[in-house]
Design goal:
The strands form 3 sheets. The protein has a 6-stranded antiparallel β-barrel. The chain is of the alpha+beta class. Among the domains are: about 60 residues, Beta Barrel (OB fold (Dihydrolipoamide Acetyltransferase, E2P)), CATH 2.40.50.100; about 160 residues, Helix Hairpins (Orthogonal Bundle), CATH 1.10.287. The radius of gyration is 63 Å and the shape is rod-shaped. Strand 11 and strand 12 form a beta hairpin.
Length: about 425
Amino acid sequence: MTNLSVEVGSARAASWAPPIGAATAMALPWRRYAKFGLGAALLAVGALTTYQQVIVRVSREAVINARVATIRAPMDGIIKTASAMPGRAVQAGAAIGDIEDPMADDARVFQLQQDTHATEREHDALSRRLADLRQSRSEADAQAEAYRLGRVRQDELRVEESKASVAAAIARETDAAAAESRGAALHARGFMAHAAYERVQHAREVAQQDTIAARKRLDALIVELAAARNGTYLGDNYNDVPSSFQRARELTVRIEETQANLDQLARKQETLSAELTAERKRLAARSSASLAAPIDGNLWTVQAASGEYVRKGQELFTVLDCSTVVVTASVSERDYNELRLGDPVRFRVSGSGRDYSGTVSKLGLTATGRSFAIAPEERRHQVAVQLADLQDSDRCAVGRTGEVVFEGRGQGPAGRLVEGLRHLLGLA
């Protein structure tokens, strides 16, 4: 009985439900409150966003940027690079590649080489000719010296012979004088005829003249000997020097002329060698050139592949200068006209909570846009912002976007509240 009562009571309790009107009246206020709350939140967010866009000065587009150094082709030719991949770190002066011109004009070098070889051949020929002339002169000098020694010896013998002739003449003169003395004594006593005495006198006079002639011949031979010892030869029917001496003198003149020509060729060789060296350097500069990084940084763009033919002045590489990192941003015309150099700003990196303080460093980037890694849009009002104390992850993160907030007007508590809500809702 008790169990039956409990089961009946449970079934009634399970089958009971509140009236339909009462449930609808309880659920309807909560739905309206939720809709009203959501609409109010959206209106608040829209109003705050409008407030910040109208009152608070915020950039439209901001990106981390840096200047780039362009490497151009110094000449026409074929470029050869190793591993030139964008993003690779390079150092100032480090070789990135080479350019070789297979069609470089080497006509001047070829002409100078021909002139140099011709001058060398002529110099060698003159050197051999000079050696032959010196050999011939040595032989002529030896022959002339032998002739001089022989002639001196001959003159010495002739002097000795002349001395002997003088002695003989003196002896004959002495005999003739003695005969005249004896003839005078006999002629005075009458023992000698007058004609005989005259012949004795005449013989003495002849002997006396022979002695004088012998002495004169001796003097002439002594003079001839002295001249021969000095290299001058006196005599009849020949010149003052023999043909060997004349030949040696002619060879000396020819040797001097040849030596002068040889010295001239040597100077010409030096000149040609210097010109050839300089022209080879110029040819090397025209036929090949090394491409080096002008600054420390990262390789930003590679605009020519290895083996490609490039023209002089063509852009080949750009190197990112990480020491010149700035933020370039687009702003409205209203904000652009109100900004001044040195105005404080804050830059917030998109997708992170990192923000940096900085100042406006330049207004308008159209003229210098090509020097940046990411060129600013020409139709927008552009500004550059200099940041301080960048973290390592953002120090050279060129291309990373964000938002620049220009501090000053509109940066009171309401502005900071708007930024906080936008950041909280993910609208920043």
